[in-house]
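Methods — Computational structure assignment.
A single polypeptide chain was analysed. Its primary sequence is given first, followed by the predicted tertiary structure written as structure tokens.
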Amino acid sequence: MRRHLTPLGAALLTLACGTIFPRYQTAMRAPPPGMREAGALRPPPDTLRRLVFVSAELPPSRPDGRTWDDDGGPDLYAVLYRNDQEVFRTPVAPNTLRPEWPSAAVTARLEPHARFRVELRDDDGPVEELVAETHFTGVPSGAIEGSNMLLRLEGGAVVTIRSLAPEPMLGLGVDYEVHESYLRVLAVEAASPGATAGLRPGDHVVSIDRQSVAALGEVGARQAMDRAALRDVSLTIEREGRPMFVVDVRLDAVYPAR
């Protein structure tokens, strides 16, 4: 006799066969006053920029003379893509030809050979219309720290982006998954003390400051990893293909970026 699982039974079987492990990011905090000015923190890589999408401007009408929107001005927002993957989008500024986004900022990796695209879009309810776009490769020539870049899009549209140095934070810069006797490293921020110490995705952290993860438990292990935002920490690592080893992670800047 053949038995069929109900949807609920199938879901329970799936949960029973696979374990979901908690995932976390290590904590970050702002450096104390004077630490950055004293040169105690490493500078960010040249390829990182904090991009503030300040504003945009559209001509009064479309190139063919039609208005942009039938019920007032367009509802504009900007989107940044890298190699056709979305990196960031601003909030929508409703009913205006001159949108401003006072706090729309992202720290982005502007690799030399990466292809970037900035789109200006009109969010008109269920329909999103591409208004204009522009393309560039690598770090634009106008991306000087503290300066404004004027990106000229087709049809006479302009997007103003301010280029700033990334803000440093203190922390380890690691995403990880909690297992019973180790923490599995999922991702390591490229500009971080974790990367400098040589951590890689797939590494197993088995002890922190000579305390085993098994003895610390989930809460204790999280707190121990977060101490990297306060002081140096020592991690014992298991990595496939080599004996167990220890890395010392120095207190330093992490520059989270997309």
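Note: Residues 1-5, 10-16 have pLDDT under 50 and may be disordered.
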